[in-house]
Amino acid sequence: MSDVVFLPEQVLEVRTLAALRDAGANEETAGAATRAMLHASRLGIDSHGVRLAAHYAKVLRGGRVNPNPAMKIHRTAAGAATLDADDGLGHAAAYAAMELARSMAKEAGVAAVGVVRSSHYGAAGAYALAGAEAGTIAVSMSNTDAIVALHGGAERFHGTNPIAIAAPVPNQRPWLLDMATSSIPFNRVLLYETLGRALPEGVAADRSGQPTRDPANVEMLMPLGGMDFGFKGAALAGMVTLLSAVLTGSTLDHFVIRMAETDDFETPRRLGHFCLAIDPDRFAGRALYDEAITRYLADLRASAAREGQSVMAPGDREWAVEAERKRTGIPVDLQTAEFLGLTE
Fold first, then answer.
1. 295 domain residue, yes or no
2. At what angle do helices 125-133 and 27-42 cross, to 10 degrees?
3. Record keywords: Oxidoreductase included (predicted)?
4. CATH for 102
5. 182: which DSSP letter?
6. Which domain holds residue 191?
7. What is the per-residue pLDDT across 74-127, written as a single tens digit (0 to 9) for each?
8. How many angstroms separate the Cα of 80 from the Cα of each of 140, 281, 327?
9. Per residue in 123-175, pLDDT tens?
10. pTM surpassing 0.85?
11. CA-CA-CA-CA torsion sign (302, 303, 307, 313)
12. Is 39 inside a domain boundary?
């Protein structure tokens, strides 16, 4: 592929950290953002990978994002809390909220943390995976600026509003679902525009609400399910808004300043996130949980497949991509490689 270069993860980590530090981010902010971006780049979620480093540097320099936030936790119950992100990058807040939820779930069984005064946090799966790797079933979601039409709608209303769920599996990588409630993430539109590629059919629309495959003509995305079944994606997006924004008192999607299509890189966007941790020890017990999820996944993967197809559990594709990229390097578009100082 002539439009990308393949680079080792270690090199990308060093250069991404340096770019965020140069933009003023403190160590916690730069480290968390780099960790989340590399998670996405390793697993093939390139729209939310290191290509976002340039955007984060821009908003750090512009003043939209606090480069040195003082996050504050407010416990409201045994299994409930809020975390004030102090207008910092969302990655550090989301990791901290998941760790807080995980620790509270060890006592309460189930714990939820709402994050307020935050910003874009990248791939939701990074935080759900962190919770699962620590032994809990973990959920992470965030509202975002309006870019997705309602089912039958012809204007933006919801954000792409991602949902991620991860579950620990003994002696295996976690079960991992990471999905936008839109047909595709908007960052994929930007990535395809950078790469000069056409979008798939039925995932985006122009200013009149008509389908378009040209990334340059995209005014809005379609909800998950597309033109015919988008009521499902629109409802899921509303659920994310309910938990991330309404429940926490954060800015509703259609009032959030746009992430990139704006000249305002100074005003904080005040997004909300929501995370949930469930401790299996407090339900069926760890031994029964481990036995059940192992059997469930073994049976799932052994299920009959159509000719020429295969069946996979959520996360299987991502773990395969990660293994491949360990061998070949991570593909990075030339614009991002140039920003990171990795082109000749």
1. no
2. 100
3. yes
4. 3.30.1370.60
5. B
6. 70-284
7. 999 999 999 999 999 999 999 999 999 999 999 999 999 999 999 999 999 999
8. 15, 19, 42
9. 999 999 999 999 999 999 999 999 999 999 999 999 999 999 999 999 999 99
10. yes
11. negative
12. no
